[in-house]
């Protein structure tokens, strides 16, 4: 099967356009940067060319319709000059909100014709009574998500309706936004752990203690969405925060990536940067991401360095360097916010390390003195210490390296603090060189 939209894939490493085959090796050639909310990069009063110069830095955009509504001329220019940029339509996988269908299925339609599709606190409650439904935020009526409800995605009737309507919603929004999208960015893919948590609040709801039934139903739903999207020329990229190290971890991961074209992970190194994984879980996470890449899918990290300036850059480098250990040219994407998870910050910061031209990876990651390293072109190194203690690593003999983030020089060896990462450029081999 071939994706129809000719502008979805335009190889950045060669000079002619290619198509995307789901059966063979992927021919997506992306780099590693993404814009999440960044209205400030494109909204007025920026001049069209200024907005374009900001947006052109990025290779993929997750929340496309949240941004394209601003400064249409800049986005039109971007589509003309950079047609290979991946523009995804953001969509909530199994929630609807009263009075707001901007990024979900229509609440009014489901509420009127299929209220049984909305999950109830108990089986056989009055389906049309909102107070009987499971809310996203049940405790605060003033909260924006108080009237946000969960859909029973394991219901086969809903699955078939959703598969029939998801393309319509993308294309209707594309018409109003004046742009076509390359695929769906599907958020809130929550499986057995979510069921367990809901069951604590509502022990008599439909899927209480039925984690496997819910998970299997959700996976069936994803499969139907993917089939519908792919047959109409769209990709499906999902956001799922897996419970690394759990009994379901490997099973869920394998099942999800069999039903998607890519996966975004907000928990690649831990729940938050205040509680990073220990080495074994850290390594398990990296192995999962390597599995995605081996299958030719898009692998997208969305990380959250702490907002406290004492930790922001250190957290960022730990995330970014860990990602660099497994990144693969053409399929790997990376995003880092500043602050807590969610939308606490209106924009995604631009880190100067994105502009360092390290070249392509020369070989897979390797272990040295309890740390992990990877060699890149232009004789550059990326090093990560996932342990809870400082470790020393040996550098190539008689060679001097510089840390471009701090300008500090190293020769012979260096000490790497606990749970930290570092980029090293060999002196005389492009130190400080930036991407064009």
Description:
Helices cover 29% and strands 18% of the residues. The protein has 436 residues and is α/β, with parallel strands linked by helices. It has two domains: 34-355, TIM Barrel, CATH 3.20.20.70; 366-426, Golgi alpha-mannosidase II (Immunoglobulin-like, Sandwich), CATH 2.60.40.1180. The protein has an eight-stranded parallel beta sheet with strand order 1-2-3-6-7-8-9-10. Strands 11-12-13-18-15-16 form a six-stranded antiparallel beta sheet. α2 (48-55) crosses α4 and α7 packs across α8. Mean pLDDT is 81; it is low at 1-41, 341-346 and 430-436. It holds the Pfam family GHL15.
SSE arrangement:
Elements: E1 34-35, H1 39-42, H2 48-55, E2 60-61, H3 64-67, H4 72-81, E3 86-92, E4 95-97, H5 107-113, E5 148-150, H6 156-177, E6 183-187, H7 192-201, H8 211-231, E7 235-239, H9 249-257, E8 262-265, H10 279-294, E9 298-303, H11 312-326, E10 332-336, E11 366-368, E12 371-376, E13 380-385, E14 391-394, E15 400-403, E16 408-411, E17 413-416, E18 420-426
Parallel strand pairs: 1-2, 2-3, 3-6, 6-7, 7-8, 8-9, 9-10
Antiparallel strand pairs: 4-5, 11-12, 12-13, 13-18, 14-17, 15-16, 15-18
Helix pairs in contact: 2-4, 6-8, 7-8, 10-11
């Amino acid at each position: 099967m071939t994706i129809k939209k000719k502008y979805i894939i335009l190889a950045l490493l060669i000079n002619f356009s290619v198509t995307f085959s789901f059966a063979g090796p992927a021919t997506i050639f992306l780099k590693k940067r993404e814009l999440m909310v960044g209205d400030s990069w494109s909204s007025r009063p920026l001049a069209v060319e200024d907005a374009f110069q900001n947006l052109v830095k990025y290779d993929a955009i997750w929340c496309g319709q949240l941004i394209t509504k601003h400064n249409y001329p800049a986005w039109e220019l971007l589509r003309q000059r950079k047609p290979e940029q991946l523009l995804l339509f953001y969509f909530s996988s199994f929630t609807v909100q009263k009075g707001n269908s901007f990024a979900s299925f229509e609440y009014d339609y489901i509420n009127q014709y299929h209220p049984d599709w909305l999950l109830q606190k108990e089986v056989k409650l009055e389906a049309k009574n909102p107070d009987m439904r499971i809310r996203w935020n049940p405790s605060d009526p003033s909260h924006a998500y108080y009237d946000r409800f969960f859909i029973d995605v394991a219901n086969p009737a809903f699955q078939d309706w959703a598969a029939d309507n998801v393309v319509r919603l993308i294309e209707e929004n594309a018409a109003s936004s004046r742009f076509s999208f390359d695929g769906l960015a599907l958020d809130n893919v929550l499986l057995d752990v979510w069921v367990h948590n809901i069951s604590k609040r509502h022990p008599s709801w439909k899927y209480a203690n039925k984690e496997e039934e819910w998970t299997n139903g959700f996976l069936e739903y994803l499969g139907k969405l993917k089939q519908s999207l792919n047959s109409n020329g769209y990709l499906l990229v999902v956001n799922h925060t897996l419970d690394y190290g759990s009994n379901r971890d490997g099973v869920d991961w394998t099942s999800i990536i069999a039903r998607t074209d890519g996966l975004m992970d907000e928990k690649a190194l831990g729940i938050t940067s205040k509680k990073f994984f220990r080495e074994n879980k850290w390594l398990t996470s990296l192995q999962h991401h390597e599995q995605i890449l081996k299958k030719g899918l898009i692998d997208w990290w969305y990380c959250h360095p702490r907002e406290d300036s004492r930790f922001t850059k250190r957290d960022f480098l730990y995330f970014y360097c860990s990602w660099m250990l497994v990144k693969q040219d053409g399929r790997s994407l990376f995003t880092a916010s500043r602050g807590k998870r969610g939308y606490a910050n209106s924009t995604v910061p631009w880190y100067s390390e994105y502009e360092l031209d390290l070249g392509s990876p020369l070989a897979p990651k390797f272990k040295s003195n309890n740390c992990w390293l990877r060699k890149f072109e232009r004789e550059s190194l990326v090093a990560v210490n996932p342990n809870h203690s400082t470790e020393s690593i040996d550098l190539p003999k008689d060679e001097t390296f510089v840390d471009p983030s701090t300008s500090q020089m190293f020769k012979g060896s260096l000490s790497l603090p606990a749970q930290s990462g570092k980029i090293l450029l060999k002196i005389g081999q492009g130190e400080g060189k930036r991407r064009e």
